[in-house]
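Work Package 3 (structural annotation) set out to generate three-dimensional models for the target panel prioritized at the project kickoff. During this period the team completed the workflow that converts sequence records into discrete structure tokens, so that structures can be stored uniformly alongside our sequence database. As a representative example, we reproduce one entry of 133 residues exactly as it appears in the project archive.
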Amino acid sequence: MPVVYQVEPDLRAAEFIDVLKRSTLAERRPVDDLPRIEGMLRHADVLVTARVDDHLVGVSRAITDFHYCTYLSDLAVDEAFQRQGIGKELVRRTHEVAGLHTSLILLAAPKAETYYPHIGFEPHRSCWRRLGS
């Protein structure tokens, strides 16, 4: 089945949560807090989806200024569809929408640390974060 990619700014929270769970990214996202998930989607600048037979199998969510930097905050691909290039294509399309002149930045999930160098990302020696409540 062909994968259909599209920019989907009105992605429904229930579909987003479902693919997060099927990708294991739900372990690190507030999937039990619907208003928070809805806010994450509503305030994202770029949402790119991957669908097979209209079934959501992947999503990327990014925050960007469209001029200098783009933070890839979520990249989730259903485990049953991984290792088919879907994640790489979601990243490519997200960067394209945000502007290829922007720096694409992300924090890798522990299970994905070895994935990102494979698709062209370089590690950065200094990253700092302050957790929210």
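The first helix runs from residue 13 to 23.
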